[in-house]
Amino acid sequence: MADSGVETNVTVDVQPSLTIKTSVTIYFTIFAIAWIIFLYLQKRKPTIYACRNESTETASVAVDTGTMFGWIKPTWTTSDEVLFEFCGLDTLIFLRVLALGRKLALFGVLLSAALFPLYATGTNPDEAAGRRKEIDPLERITMSNLSNGEPRLWASVAAMYFMTFYAMYLFRAEYRYYVKRRHQFLSRDDPQQYTILINDLPMSLRTPHTLKYYMDYLFPQDVQGVTVAVECADLEKSVAKRERTRNSLEHAMAVSAQTGTRPTYRPKKELQKEYDAIDYFTEKLSKLNRKVYEKYQFLVEKQQELEAECIATGVDKAAFASAAPVSSGDDESSSQIALNEALHRHIKDGMPLRHMCKECITRSSAFVSFTSLQTAQTAQQILQTENPLEMEIVAAPQPDDIVWENIGRSKQEKDSWRLIST
């Protein structure tokens, strides 16, 4: 122990081969077990590992032979064009980044094949000084087998430059490829290319009319349409129940047509009673149709009430009309100044619509479609409000990729769940 209290005797692993062997034994065993479990489950749980194959519209284009390892070759040989068309730009670039890492790793293996013989034929400093007689084979093929100032060290420097230049070459190629694909992706005429998704809308913009007036102010004559998300969980439950009832009615009618007799039905809450299945489900379907219509009308009326309150509190079409032409002088006209002040005050202060939150009619997300790709891209880049926690704008995803349960969730809530998931 030195006077400074720092331990100078450091234990050196003189048998790294044994350490590597132990690690490989443990972790490769775990990997093999996990791999076997995956191969077993991925065929028996398609809803988890291949959920898109449940629909023919979103099914994988890679043909699976049905065997345990039959998915490997089709997946490996899938072209970039197919990935770009069916999986999107993000997936394609993610897989290419993985391929880039694989190329760098393989190049490192090639460099090692040249460096190992140079290291193995070097002069080990411990062996030359007589401190050690046996050198581990793994240590023989590493840089630690070379003495200070040995010319073979220049091979390591050369290998470093080779790896650096090769990595820069790959990065440049991938960047050029990404720019090309990005331009190709943005120039497509898919509906979502012209649409943005706005999250965390302020309460004052949670109606189609007020939001459209606001977007028309920012992008005159370029707004195609506005759709504000509505909280309709009760309506969705009734629609799902109506669909189940319709299916039961169609089943009963099919059984009646096949057998020539009208089937009967016992409700779960009235097992002691027996009803004619066709009459029972017909009456139930009629009631559900009325209930769905009533709930739909309720949502429409609440949106109209919210819109009326917006107008009553001063948020009307005049406040969001397109700006009047600016005069040629340096000073803006009084109407232009008043319009800007009204818009700024409205976005900054909002409106007292708190009781509408209790109704949970409108949610804090909306889709806005434009007539040009340039406007849609511009809308994603500009700052919409002073508050960084409001009006988060992102590109609209593919319709099949939208998780409707997440539409309307706040940024804090999504960030919290994202943090928990990682």
TrEMBL record:
Bilayer-crossing regions: 24-41, 104-122, 153-171
Presence of the UniProt keyword Membrane in the record: yes
InterPro entries: Csc1-like (IPR045122), CSC1/OSCA1-like_cyt (IPR027815), CSC1/OSCA1-like_N (IPR032880)
All copies of domain CSC1/OSCA1-like cytosolic, residue ranges: 193-298, 363-406
GO cellular component: plasma membrane
PANTHER family for the chain: PROBABLE MEMBRANE PROTEIN DUF221-RELATED, RE44586P
Name of the featured protein: CSC1/OSCA1-like cytosolic domain-containing protein
Organism of this sequence: Aphanomyces astaci (Crayfish plague agent)
Taxon lineage: Eukaryota, Sar, Stramenopiles, Oomycota, Saprolegniomycetes
